[in-house]
Amino acid sequence: MTKLTFYPLGNADTALVELADGRRMLVDYANMRSAQAGDKRCDLPALLKQDLKAAKRKDYTVVAFTHLDVDHTQGASEFFHLDHAKCYQGEGRPKIETMWVPADVVTETNLTEDARIIRQEARHRLRRGSGIKVFSRPERLRAWFDKEGIRIEDRAHCIVDAGKLVGGFSLVADSVEFFVHSPHATRSDRNELEDRNGGSLVFQARFREGTYDTDVLFAADVNHEVIAEIVRITKYHGNDDRLHWNVYKLPHHCSYKAIGKEKGVDLTEPTTEIEWLCEEQGERNGFIVAPSDPSPAKGTAADVNVQPPHRQAAEYYRSRVLAQRANLLVTMEEPRIAAPEPIVISITERGAVRERAGSGGAKAAAAAVAPRAGAWRRTR
Amino acid sequence: MNPWRAALEAQYPLVIAAGGLSHRAAIATAALLRSGAYRGAQLVECRRSAGAALGEALWLDVDVAIGQLEAVNNIRATEPVAVIFYDGGTPPAAYPLREDFPERVPHLNMSPPGFPRSLCLYEMPVEDVLRIATPHAVIERIRWWLAETAHGKLHGDDQPLDPLFCPIGETVILPDEDIVALAEHDLAFVQGPGGPAAPFHLVRVKDLQGGSAAQKATERYATMVVLTDAVPHVGINMPPATLADLIAIYADLGVDVVGPLRAAFRRWTGRQDLADFLERPWLLLLVTPIQRSPGVPGALMTRGFQTGNVSSAAAARALGALLFHGNLVSRPITEMPPEEGAGADVALMTLDLQFPMSRRLARLASGRIDRDGDDREIALVGAGALGSQLAMTAARMGIGTWSIIDHDFLLPHNLARHALLRRHVGISKAMALACELDAMLGPRSVKVLCDLAIAREAEPLLAAADLVLDVSASVPTARILALRSRHATRTRLFRLVDRLLEGWPDTFVAMCRAAGVTRSAIVKDMEVVPFALDRVLRAHLDDTPYRAAEAEVVTAAAWLRRTRGKATYRDLKALCGESREALYRHMDYERTQARPSWRRLDAMRARDAG
């Protein structure tokens, strides 16, 4: 069964996707735990290695880095086996079959630490022409290819444009497909093509279990303006269902900026596009996952802080979007603030279902025999 | 709105601390919920009954994994549930507490009207439930019950539907005829030998031929058979205690039972002996179809009710079916709805009706309802020890329309192994067996022929049969069948395919594996390999690409030359797959290539040298 795991890492993102056939996929990797005692953030590398060991796997089919911010990449160079340099290889480092990155990751300069190392790995794979998907219009990468002396046509299979499905996965064979929303191209006022803050990688994963499709929207760290562009483009192309979600991985750690311009006093008012995305395209019984610290209480120092999470944003999702307030899952609040644990969501033939710690999933109950009330004298 | 919460609160009025619990299972369950290790439910409060007998209760908020697929029953993502722990060898019971919890769903346990109904969590003996009912397992089971009920999936598509009323009361065996034919007849109950617990037979009074049977017969009943409209599948209920209850239950399900009952009473008015008939107690045989889902028939429930000493006139009066003026009985001119609570004084006693054996019942009792092929024509060649047992066993399962071919007679020593009994000694085996099969499957369902070898008549029987069973233990007979039967090869072939398709795809894949077939050979012609099949194939079969043997390539090339004139590389590859070296050796070269591969050059060189 397909399973999503969201790890408590403070204001940072890592999601593990266990596909129906057991393959593993990671969306971002950020090991934020510090050495200090009392840090409630999880020990990400240990948990992930434990998972791989239990699944008897040594690699990830896909590792997607939505962008190069520290809260999406920290510690990646210490965890993964990277092909481009011997010093990032060795026993126990899981391999990455295919790396997904937006074009910025290849072209950005002045990077340091993990961001730089990920860029080098992405460039290495792109030069090699395998094990990578770069999300962009092909033209966006032309200058880099020219400099490298590679014909862009020879790397067409490594480039995925927005508005397309990612190759290599199909609903029929793999029970999953991925639709790319960003980075996208928009026309500027001067009527020439340019890439905007589409910068980070936004995509919808669609999982099929039985006859039901469950949609999960991974929104990286985009703000409401970028979401509005995505909504407009998607509607223009008649792809509305590609913004449908059962699970919505919130952008930017439950920031009000992913909803509207003004923070609001108790609730952030959404823009028209966000309202459509959240209240029309979302399932009211679905889940919203906020990879963030606990929401600050009103009037506390954290509440005044400009950094997310913002309680006004959380209030919008809880009161206007979801049928149940409890379905906004803040990674550092679940199951309780004192001891957060990874949030596990199973994809079933009835949609996304939250696994409760220790419940043993659907297996425990289904293992027993179905009740047959009144069938004890079945022949009548 | 149900009063279940209030009723349970009245039964368990004392709210206590978790530390004050004394029932072992209640303590363990509360401990699990308070430990924080399990979050399938939250503990709200602990309660105790005023007297010790009713045990202790935990009020829980249970988390239900409903998902986003639209639910068909009104079950919420969080359901308040009372889990009750009784003293002394009884598993815990779970009672929903929400006021508008759906009452009309399958698998709620029965209780008298107005009393709380618990979830039917297990179908196994109590001792087995107690063995597995850990706190974790019980709460998970409750969560599972709620989630499956939310989506209307708790009752499996392959499960028989629950009857509307549970069968209780005196056991009554119905006569060997269609139930509709019993309407308006004089019927009486006769108890079989074996004491007061023995079941009753329902018999026609005219069939009681004086003597002891007639003496033992009960009062004669005025019998009525009524077919109602279909009701939805709402699970099992306590049967009605009075006529008023019966009307109310059906009305609650949107079905009018008064109309059909009135019509049935009015049909009586043509009787010569109406006054006498109305004085007898009433026997109502009520037939109600139950729908699996709206518009989809699922089962037919027949329930019997009798009024004991109350006359059927009382029922007719309560229903407003007939008008009584002294000794005069008449039909009312206008149709009036029955009075509120009418029929409350007509007590109904439920009967546990048992149908006579028939093909349908045989199948039901064998779990073979809805199976294809159970009606097929079977020619049984040989009614000896093996054939008789085979045919009787199959007939007990409702299988087959039989033709029996045997020339022998039953002798005493045959009884050691034969299915027939002592009373059949001296009779033709085929005829005696046919009688017994008829009794099981319904009259005249068996054809009999007493000799195969000399009888030309056997041929049409064999030709018409879907299945010929040779249990003759005779070589000449086997020869004759091999000559005359058209089934032999087909049967073998279908049996093979049937075997391969059983448990698809596992049996198929296992056989492929045993035969050394590779995965690529199977998926070769599939555009998209179904996920379910692919998983099994990958797990069990050799994953290396298929390479055709040399002989296969030679044959394919020859066939191509014969049919298309030449064997091109592309055509050969389509037929034989990626066996490049062999293809190069046997293809026809008609084009020269600017940069031929070294394989091609090697092959051409070898061919020229050869």
Describe the structure.
The complex is a heterodimer of chains A (380) and B (610). With 380 residues, chain A is α/β, with parallel strands linked by helices. In chain A, 25% of the residues lie in helices and 23% in strands. In chain A, the strands form three sheets. In chain A, strands 7-6-5-4-3-2-1-16-17 form a nine-stranded mixed beta sheet. In chain A, helix 8 (224-236) packs across helix 9 (272-280). The longest helix of chain A has 16 residues, at 113-128. Residues 187-197, 361-369 and 372-380 of chain A have low confidence and may be disordered. With 610 residues, chain B is α/β, with parallel strands linked by helices. Chain B is built from 22 helices and 19 strands. Chain B is extended, with a radius of gyration of 35 Å.
Short description:
The complex is a heterodimer of chains A (380) and B (610). Chain A has 380 residues and is α/β, with parallel strands linked by helices. Chain A has helices at residues 44-54, 70-73, 76-79, 103-107, 113-128, 142-148, 171-174, 224-236, 272-280, 301-304, 311-321, 361-366, and strands at 2-6, 15-18, 24-27, 59-64, 95-102, 132-135, 159-160, 176-182, 185-187, 193-195, 202-209, 212-218, 245-249, 282-290, 328-330, 343-348, 351-354.
How do the helices and strands line up, and which of them pair or pack?
The complex is a heterodimer of chains A (about 375) and B (about 600).
Chain A: E1 2-6, E2 15-18, E3 24-27, H1 44-54, E4 59-64, H2 70-73, H3 76-79, E5 95-102, H4 103-107, H5 113-128, E6 132-135, H6 142-148, E7 159-160, H7 171-174, E8 176-182, E9 185-187, E10 193-195, E11 202-209, E12 212-218, H8 224-236, E13 245-249, H9 272-280, E14 282-290, H10 301-304, H11 311-321, E15 328-330, E16 343-348, E17 351-354, H12 361-366
Parallel strand pairs in A: 3-4, 4-5, 5-6, 6-7, 12-13, 13-14, 14-15
Antiparallel strand pairs in A: 1-2, 1-16, 2-3, 8-11, 9-10, 11-12, 16-17
Chain B: H1 4-11, E1 14-16, H2 24-35, E2 41-48, E3 56-63, E4 78-85, E5 93-96, H3 126-132, H4 135-150, E6 170-173, E7 186-191, E8 200-204, H5 211-216, E9 220-227, E10 231-232, H6 243-252, H7 258-267, H8 274-279, E11 281-293, E12 296-311, H9 312-319, E13 323-325, E14 328-330, E15 349-354, H10 359-365, E16 377-381, H11 385-396, E17 401-405, H12 429-441, E18 446-449, H13 458-464, E19 467-470, H14 475-484, H15 488-501, H16 506-514, H17 519-523, H18 531-540, H19 550-564, H20 569-576, H21 580-586, H22 598-609
Parallel strand pairs in B: 6-8, 6-15, 9-11, 10-11, 16-17, 16-19, 17-18
Antiparallel strand pairs in B: 1-2, 2-3, 3-4, 4-5, 7-8, 7-9, 11-12, 12-15, 13-14
